[in-house]
Automatic annotation (TrEMBL):
Name of the protein this chain belongs to: AEC family transporter
Transmembrane regions listed in the UniProt entry: 6-25, 37-56, 62-82, 103-123, 129-147
Transport found in the keyword field: yes
Keyword annotations: Membrane, Transmembrane, Transmembrane helix, Transport
Length: 150
C-alpha cells in the first residue's frame, strides 16, 4: 500500500505542477502547441518504441490482455442497462459510455513506470496499444448508434 502511495505521489505532483504552470503562463496558444506535441508526436513515439521492445512470448502477457479485454467488455455491457434504468438521453449516454470504458493513458504509463520500472513501461505500452484500439472501436460504435449526427 505504501509503495503504491509513494508511486502515485510524483504523478500527483506533476499534475499539480502542470496546473500551476498553466495558471502562471497565460498563453493558451503555448499550451495548445505543447498538447499537440505530446499527443501527436511524443506519446505515439514512446508507445511504438516500448511496444517494439516487448517479448510477446511472455506467458502472462496474453492472459493479462484477455483479462483487460473481458473487464472492459463487462463494464461496457453493464452501462447499457444503466442507460435504460436511469433514463439517460442518447447523446449524454455517449459521454457516459466513454467515461466508463476509457482510462487515463498518461497516469497508467507513469504509474506502471513508477511501480515496475522500465519493464512496466514496456508492458503498459503493449496494453495501451491494444486497449486504445478496442476502446476506440467501442466508443465510435456507441457514438454512431446513440449520437445526434451533428
Amino acid at each position: 500500500m505504501l509503495e503504491t502511495l509513494l508511486s502515485v505521489l510524483p504523478i500527483f505532483g506533476l499534475v499539480m505542477t502542470g496546473f500551476i504552470a498553466k495558471r502562471l503562463l497565460p498563453s493558451s496558444d503555448l499550451w495548445k502547441g505543447i498538447e499537440w506535441l505530446v499527443y501527436y508526436l511524443f506519446f505515439p513515439v514512446l508507445l511504438i518504441l516500448e511496444v517494439s521492445k516487448a517479448n510477446f512470448s511472455e506467458p502472462g502477457l496474453w492472459g493479462g490482455l484477455m483479462a483487460t479485454f473481458i473487464a472492459t467488455m463487462i463494464i461496457a455491457v453493464i452501462l447499457f442497462p444503466m442507460k435504460r434504468i436511469f433514463k439517460i438521453e442518447n447523446t449524454l449516454f455517449t459521454s457516459i459510455f466513454q467515461g466508463g470504458v476509457r482510462y487515463n493513458s498518461y497516469v497508467f504509463l507513469a504509474l506502471s513506470q513508477s511501480l515496475f520500472g522500465s519493464a512496466g513501461i514496456v508492458i503498459a505500452g503493449v496494453f495501451m496499444a491494444y486497449m486504445i484500439i478496442v476502446i476506440n472501436i467501442l466508443s465510435i460504435s456507441v457514438l454512431n448508434v446513440y449520437g445526434s449526427n451533428q
